[in-house]
Specification:
Length: 275
């Protein structure tokens, strides 16, 4: 049943775009630049094929991996009345009710109107992967954006190098010039878009936020300033701890989208108040 997620127009469009970029980068631009049979051409083809394969693997992991849902048996753990004020504040944040599911929500879980369920540590619903980006597939999504950015920049550099080594004249070969211009513009736009998205999620990871929590934090910060207080995101521990909570403690496994053994149940998260 999971494979049915691939039967989506946006998902198929991503596959077609990957195949198109891979084809014209290798068999048109690298071939035209240094030749695929040369040592430089073979090396560039192998590197780009490796990056493209990692993109494809990460994309498949994003589509197929369940982001995590709230179990029907979930009941928030509420301590007794003798708890401190700070503990009471933390407990009150756990008493979150979903009006649509008619059930309790753990911290950082949100209801997705498209998936029609509450998703653990929901970041957003992504049309291009036909899935929510949540607790279990956020790492795969981040690695996908990283690899896709590297692949786009790599392809863009190859196109630019190929264009500069050509001896362009102002005569014929108009279709070839149009193809170069369109391909270059496509890769510049794609590299800029993916690079911006990568930078955004690097910011979120280093602050241990989701996209939803970022916009919730804007309002919380505004309310805190009105009352003369300072708002701090409660799950922001430190840059390194925030990174390891998403990518894992083993740096050798950071670029593997399916290395998620460090993840727990997604029901509880350490906060800055715990320390």
């Amino acid at each position: 049943m999971k494979c049915l997620k691939f039967l989506s127009i946006p998902v198929c469009s991503v596959f077609l775009l990957m195949g198109f970029i891979y084809y014209f980068t290798l068999f048109i631009f690298i071939e035209d630049w240094v030749g695929l049979q040369s040592s430089a051409g073979t090396l560039n083809a192998l590197i780009f094929t490796l990056i493209a394969s990692l993109c494809l693997f990460s994309f498949s992991a994003c589509v197929l991996t369940d982001p995590g849902h709230v179990p029907y048996s979930y009941v928030p753990d509420v301590e007794g009345n003798d708890a401190s004020d700070q503990e009471s504040l933390n407990n009150s944040s756990q008493l979150r009710q979903c009006d649509k599911c008619c059930a309790h929500k753990p911290p950082r879980a949100h209801h997705c109107r498209i998936c029609r369920r509450c998703v653990l540590r929901m970041d957003h619903h992504c049309l291009w992967i036909n899935n929510c980006v949540g607790y279990w597939n956020y790492k795969a999504f981040f690695i996908l954006v990283l690899h896709a950015t590297v692949a786009s920049v790599y392809s863009m550099v190859i196109i630019i190098c190929c264009a500069f080594q050509k001896n362009w004249d102002f005569g014929g070969r108009i279709p070839l010039k149009i193809f170069y211009a369109v391909s270059g513009a496509l890769m510049v736009a794609l590299s800029g878009t993916l690079g911006t998205l990568l930078g955004w999620h690097i910011y979120l990871i280093t602050h241990n936020m989701t996209t939803i929590e970022y916009y919730e934090g804007i309002r919380a910060s505004w309310l805190a300033r009105k009352s003369g207080q300072i708002y701090r995101h409660p799950f922001d521990l430190s840059a390194y701890k925030n990174i390891t909570m998403v990518l894992g403690p083993n740096m050798l496994k950071w670029l593997c989208p399916t290395a998620t053994s460090h993840l727990k149940d997604g029901m509880n998260y350490p906060t800055s108040h715990d320390s």
